[in-house]
Specification:
Blueprint lengths: L3 E6 L10 H6 L4 E6 L4 H11 L4 E5 L4 E2 L3 H11 L2 E8 L20 E3 L6 E5 H7 L11 H9 L5 E11 L5 H21 L4 H10 L9 H28 L15
Parallel strand pairs: 1-2, 1-3, 5-8
Antiparallel strand pairs: 3-7, 4-8, 5-7, 6-8
Helix pairs in contact: 6-8, 7-8
């Protein structure tokens, strides 16, 4: 049986990644599972069902594991139920000052409740306990919702030497598109979590730190991105209000079974 299963959602299940030889040369036996099942959540759940290993490693199709990543993640999962690590932003240089604060959580290992889906790993027994990714969240916040449930019963360990390279955004248009989608998908996430949606929307839109960066240029960029995210948030809320008279996307049961 493989020691680890590496599960990657993508739009092209036949693509290659450039690091397969590193995986083959590693000291761990691994299975690489690439899925294109409709959404990131559906693809990850399908990958979980397909996997035979007990250690499940989740990467994005543009994640590039660094150093002895595969040996390290296997070792960490011997000691922890769930782990995450450092993400080095390889996107456009002018976007990096506003990269997600979750990308680099410092030089010391510690427990965390902040995890990005391009660098995370979980033991199968945890998924069997809490369920898989909620497919009502096709893109955006799906790993956050999973980690919310996970942290109710388990800890996540952040290891700074578990490193992947991953672009936050390759261009200004890509950054703004990402901000819009994350804003739009925040509404179903709030509803799944049982939040007061208007209150959470106001908090998202009005917190001053969401508009500031380390420099004047970064502040201008973050302000623009935040305003676009707020537009996405409002668009998502209107969509759910219009669906309220019938069976909306959150009225059925979650499809997170694995």
């Amino acid at each position: 049986m493989p020691d680890i299963a590496i599960i990657i959602p993508t739009l092209d299940a036949d693509r290659t990644f450039g690091w397969e030889s590193t995986l083959r040369d590693s000291a761990v036996e691994a299975e690489l599972i690439v899925r294109d099942d409709g959404s990131a959540s559906a693809a990850r759940n399908a990958g979980i069902r397909e996997a035979t290993a007990d250690k499940l490693v989740f990467l994005d199709d543009d994640s590039v594991p660094q150093g002895d990543y595969f040996e390290r993640v296997s070792s960490l999962l011997d000691d922890h139920k769930a782990v995450t690590g450092r993400i080095r932003d390889t996107g456009a240089w002018y976007i990096r000052p506003v990269s997600s604060s979750a990308y680099d959580q410092g030089e010391e290992g510690h427990h965390t409740d902040t995890v990005v889906g391009c660098n995370m790993a979980v033991r199968r027994e945890v998924i069997e306990d809490i369920g898989g990714f909620d497919e009502r969240l096709p893109y955006g916040h799906e790993e956050t919702e999973l980690i919310d449930r996970l942290c109710e019963s388990y800890d996540v360990w952040y290891s700074p030497d578990l490193v992947v390279d991953h672009p936050f955004a390759d261009s200004l248009s890509g950054y703004l598109e990402k901000q819009y989608r994350h804003g739009r998908e925040a509404v179903p996430y709030y509803k799944i979590r049982g939040e007061n949606v208007p209150r959470r929307m106001a908090r998202f839109a009005l917190v001053p730190s969401h508009y500031t960066g380390p420099t004047a240029a970064a502040t201008a960029l973050r302000t623009l991105g935040q305003l676009v995210a707020v537009v996405g948030l409002l668009r998502g809320y209107v969509g759910h209000l219009l669906a309220a008279g019938g069976e909306g996307p959150l009225d059925g049961n979650a499809d997170g079974g694995v």
